UniProtKB/TrEMBL annotation:
<dbReference type="InterPro" id="IPR017981">
    <property type="entry name" value="GPCR_2-like_7TM"/>
</dbReference>
<feature type="transmembrane region" description="Helical">
    <location>
        <begin position="42"/>
        <end position="65"/>
    </location>
</feature>
<dbReference type="GO" id="GO:0005886">
    <property type="term" value="C:plasma membrane"/>
</dbReference>
<dbReference type="GO" id="GO:0035643">
    <property type="term" value="F:L-DOPA receptor activity"/>
</dbReference>
<feature type="region of interest" description="Disordered">
    <location>
        <begin position="263"/>
        <end position="282"/>
    </location>
</feature>
<dbReference type="GO" id="GO:0050848">
    <property type="term" value="P:regulation of calcium-mediated signaling"/>
</dbReference>
<feature type="transmembrane region" description="Helical">
    <location>
        <begin position="77"/>
        <end position="100"/>
    </location>
</feature>
<keyword id="KW-0812">Transmembrane</keyword>
<feature type="domain" description="G-protein coupled receptors family 2 profile 2">
    <location>
        <begin position="1"/>
        <end position="133"/>
    </location>
</feature>
<feature type="transmembrane region" description="Helical">
    <location>
        <begin position="112"/>
        <end position="134"/>
    </location>
</feature>
<dbReference type="InterPro" id="IPR001414">
    <property type="entry name" value="GPR143"/>
</dbReference>
<keyword id="KW-0472">Membrane</keyword>
<dbReference type="GO" id="GO:0035240">
    <property type="term" value="F:dopamine binding"/>
</dbReference>
<keyword id="KW-1133">Transmembrane helix</keyword>
<dbReference type="GO" id="GO:0072545">
    <property type="term" value="F:L-tyrosine binding"/>
</dbReference>
<protein>
    <submittedName>
        <fullName>Uncharacterized protein LOC111137311 isoform X2</fullName>
    </submittedName>
</protein>
<dbReference type="GO" id="GO:0072544">
    <property type="term" value="F:L-DOPA binding"/>
</dbReference>
């Protein structure tokens, strides 16, 4: 959901600015274009930041479920909604505290702060989530062995399905957000040394187009991983469905997707490692 709202903000802002409805930086009084610039920028920053923090929440909760624990709902709401709100508010203050006419004209210092506030969650997810996913996979494997006293092909297929889902989540995230890190690095280097470094205009344009495609595309690709392809009212990727169905039909019920691992009935957070459909909002 947060991805959809962020992309919707990008789409509306792009349509308005294609009509050249830019705010006049020379005006001392606010007009509709200034208000739109402020609201749209904060909207986009907030919901994209929520997207990054919900990825972190997903990883932490997957790890906790694999260890027979449950993440507090209040903590999820705080991390997923309120921390991004604080960061978006801080970015708005940095940009507009000297006046609302600075929607486009930012100094190097203020631009750097905004880039840090926007991209630090991206770097955090790229560094932390792989470690958490790795530990969650190991914990799920240990839980299966401890519960059944065995590790046969059935358990192995379920663990492989969990690992595959984690890999897909990380690959999609890296592909969709690395262009933003590259763009930030190039732009900040250009602003700090305009005379010694002038990037190629075609390369910058290609990078902008790549970001315009990959950032919204993450919403689609992440939905396919988290929810799967629609198929007779069962929303999950076939590889996960087959692995889970095979294991549930084997000699023992799945400790991961049933109440044995998380202590909650099937269909809620008792199955976050495979389908993860209900409580975590993206």
């Amino acid at each position: 959901m947060v991805n959809v709202l962020a992309v919707l903000g990008l789409l509306v802002r792009s349509i308005v600015w294609l009509d050249r409805a830019f705010p006049n930086t020379k005006k001392k009084c606010m007009d509709a274009n200034h208000y739109f610039c402020l609201i749209s920028n904060v909207w986009i920053l907030y919901f994209f930041t929520c997207n990054h923090f919900w990825h972190l929440v997903y990883a932490v909760e997957a790890y906790m479920v694999s260890n027979n624990k449950e993440m507090n709902t209040g903590m999820k709401v705080f991390v997923g909604w309120f921390i991004p709100l604080f960061m978006a508010g801080a970015a708005a203050v940095v940009v507009y505290y000297q006046g609302f006419n600075s929607c486009f004209s930012l100094s190097l210092t203020r631009s750097s702060i905004v880039y840090i506030l926007f991209l630090s969650p991206v770097v955090m997810v790229m560094l932390i989530n792989p470690v958490i996913f790795y530990q969650a996979g190991k914990s799920a494997k240990r839980a299966l062995i401890w519960h059944y006293g065995r590790y046969t092909s059935s358990e192995r297929k379920l663990v492989d399905a969990i690992h595959t889902k984690f890999y897909l989540i990380l690959i999609i995230y890296f592909i969709c957000w690395i262009p933003n890190l590259v763009n930030a690095g190039l732009w900040l280097r250009y602003e700090s040394s305009r005379t010694s470094f002038i990037p190629d205009e075609k390369s910058i344009l290609a990078l902008f187009i790549l970001m315009a495609v990959t950032n919204p595309l993450q919403a689609v690709l992440a939905a396919l991983v988290f929810w799967g392809l629609p198929n007779t009212n069962r929303l999950r990727l076939n590889i996960f469905h087959r692995s889970e169905a095979h294991y549930n039909n084997s000699s023992g019920s799945s400790i991961i997707n049933r109440s044995g691992l998380s202590g909650i009935s099937t269909g809620s957070e008792s199955e976050p490692l495979l389908s993860y459909r209900t409580k975590t909002t993206f």
